[in-house]
Each structure stands twice: as C-alpha cells, then as structure tokens.
Amino acid sequence: MILKNEKLCFIDTPGHSTFSNVRSRGVQSTDMVVLVIASDNGIQEQTVECINLIKAAITPFVICITKIDKKGTDIERIYNDLCKMGIEPEAVGGNVPSFEISALTGQGMKEFIEFLPKFAKKIDLSYDVTAPATGTIIDLRISSSLGKIATCILRQGKLKRGDLVSCGSTFAKVKQIILEDGKYANEVFASQPFHLVGWNSTPIPGEIFHLIDKNIKLKELQKITRLPMFGHSLVSGRLNHVGDSEYLTYDENNPLRINLLIKCDNYGSAEAVYQGIKHCNDPRVVINIYCCGIDNLETYTLLSVPESHTLIYTLNTEINSEAREILLKQKFAINSFEIIYKLFDHIKHYIQLEIRKAKVLKQVGAAKVLATFQLSGKLKRYVIGMKVCDGAFYNEKDVIVHIYRNNELLHQDTISSIKKLKTTVSVVNFGDECGISLKSPYKVKPGDDVVCYRLFPDERSVNWHY
C-alpha cells in the first residue's frame, strides 16, 4: 500500500487457532503490528496469544477494533479486558494507539490509515540500503516449473539476481525475484515482499536468510520438509465375541486408526493442517499422519500405507503423475480441497461414519440371583433363578448380560432362553421372577448381580474442534 509516497507492506495472518505458528512468524517478521479485534467477538484465545507474542518480541503495535457498525457490541468491555492484560489503549487514557473502525460504513478508516505512516516515522522505521541483505522466510511452496519458491520479506539492504544467500542449513543462488504482482525484478529493497527462486534445498519458514560471499563453497545439506509423523499401527478397534454376539468397539485402548497422506500448496497450510489434526481429542480415534507437506509423495511411502482407513488429500495443489498412478492402482481415492476447513470436515465426517459402525453397551436391566438349577443331561447347563430389580431383560441378538460378584465382573454372555412360570418369553420386566439360560455353562451363586446390556450404534459426536 502506498500512502503519500510512503510504502506499507502488510502481512495478513489468519486468526484461526490452527495458524498459531503463522502468527508467530508474522510478529517476528514485522516492524509493527496491527492487533485486530472484532467488536462482536471481543478478546479471543488467539488475541491473548498475539498479545503475548507482541510482548515477547517487544514489537510496537496499534489496536484496531473492527465491525463497530454492528449492534450489541461492547467496546468498553474490550478495553477493560485489554487493561487487565496490561495493555492500556489511548481511548481509555493509555499509551497504546487505538482505533475503532467499520469497513462497511467507512467510519474511522481514514484516520486509521493516515496514522500508520506517521506511527512508522515516530518509531523510526528506517533501514540501511548499503547494509548486507537480510530477510525472513514467510512461506514456502513448490512449483513444477520453478521448483522451491520462498515468500520472503527483506529486512535491510538490497538483494539482486545472482546474489548468494544462506538460510539455516540451505542456501540459494538468486535465480529469479518475483514481486507480489507477478512481475519479475532484478533487485528488491528492504520491507519489500517477494518470491525467491533458486534454493538448493528446502528452507524453513520463520528462518532468517543472509547475503554471503559468492565465492564461499557451501556443503549441500538436505532438510526434510515433511512434518513429524505420529506412530503407525495397523490394528484398529476391537472385535468382541460374547456368546453368539460379535460386535466392534472403539475406545482409548482400542481406537479407530485413520491414516492420512496430505499434500499442500505451501508450508503454512501444511503446518495449519497438522496443527488442526492434533486438535482431535477423541480417545476413540488415533490419526496417523504418514506425511503432510509440500514435497511430492514418495513411492516407498505410498507402497507402505495400509489399505484400510487411509485417506489421501490435496490442498490447493495436485499429486504428481507417478504418485497418482500408484494410488489409483491401489484403489485409493484422491480428495482435493481448496479450503482447509472443508478438508477437516471431510476427515471428521469419515471418522463419524466409521465410529457409528461400532457398538456401545447401554444398561437396560438388572437382577439379583435367587438360586441356580442344573439341568439334567450330559452337558452342564444351568438355569439362573433371579428377580428383576431394574428395567427389563430381553432374549434378543443385541443383548449381552454381565455377571458380577461384589462388583467384580466374572462372566459375560448372551441369553439362550428366558422362562417365566415355565413359559418361554422374550422379555421380563421390573419385579418379575424368572429363569434364564446362558449360551455357555456358567454357575452363579445366590446374591450375584446380573446386568442386562443392549448394543447400540455409537452415535456420540467426534470430539474435534478446529
């Protein structure tokens, strides 16, 4: 943005919680920060996070409260909350510049925009064009034609095509400088955003790059750009066999395991996807991230992925033809999205459908054992004489009974038959005395507790907020 011959470069960072690392890099890469607070939302968790980042970096900042045209907003409360955190806005007599604006009506916009270059001069934002070029990597993406492209901002000095820069364990001979409008340039100056082409290996966003002597010989170092992987396991859930019943359960010890391969268009998106997936706090689910990054999916990775519960995603990019051919041969679907939250929605929906295939036990009845009778014949079979003291007992396929003694589970089984006054019935209710036979012979004692459970689909929502 150019205001009265003054250039201002804005780094717009997302406000969602999954982009915390992007916000951290933004604060560390800027000369001043505009802390945007929506008047209808007030102070959010991300706002507190940004304030802490600003304090840690000792970065000058301006408070900008937006959407003041909305009815029912409480701006005074926002100021009070800021004061409690040690931030005193000018609007309430403090020393931190503050503005109230509405993009819809334009209220306060002119004053706010005109203030920014004045504030920059006040805090003496100047640079030395003769100093060696130094800058920050903001983001990273991979182009099929240009290779690794780093989005950068120069902090001081001047950078030209042909220069050599080092960044962490990698370096770049500047082959191309691409400006934000897509035009190619021969040089770039401090505070100017640009894309740098010519990296030897992958730089990491947030790292600082420096101009170095072109005659220095650098040892090539490889840096893996994929984000960390969770542990791998092929076992998913537990298949329970009780009497004639067989049912699947997912719990903390036997979770549903989902395997993900995700290719993103840039490092910031990959980082946000990874952080968002970590927010899944459901003990019934473990998400294995085989890879989440910007590099092409490697053949050995694709061939080692389990066939079950594996999802393949792309975010604003495509999978290279070799990887696509391997995936199609293995009959994997490739799910493509342009919005990160749509990708999360798809994963969550898949998990919810799989979870519903599992069963949960819900108690529907309880009884106290009165006596045990052994039936005549070669096979040891028993009839449990009992009185229903809660709910009901059913002779159905989806019913399981547990035998307890002193609150300790001794046996679980399915019901073979229920008799009431020598008549076979399918259900007995509260207060009824009856005799039940189990599928397998088990001798109980008077005073034991018999609890009747029914299997229901697991309809509980997946605990994942992103």
UniProtKB/TrEMBL annotation:
One of its GO terms (molecular function) is GTP binding. Residues 1-126 form the Tr-type G domain. The keyword ATP-binding does not apply. InterPro entries: EF-G-like_DII, P-loop_NTPase, T_Tr_GTP-bd_dom, TIF_IF2, TIF_IF2_dom3, TIF_IF2_dom3_sf, Transl_B-barrel_sf. Signal peptide: none annotated. This is Translation initiation factor IF-2. Keywords: GTP-binding, Initiation factor, Nucleotide-binding, Protein biosynthesis. GO terms for cellular component: cytoplasm. Gene3D superfamilies: P-loop containing nucleotide triphosphate hydrolases, Translation factors, Translation initiation factor IF- 2, domain 3. It comes from the Eukaryota.
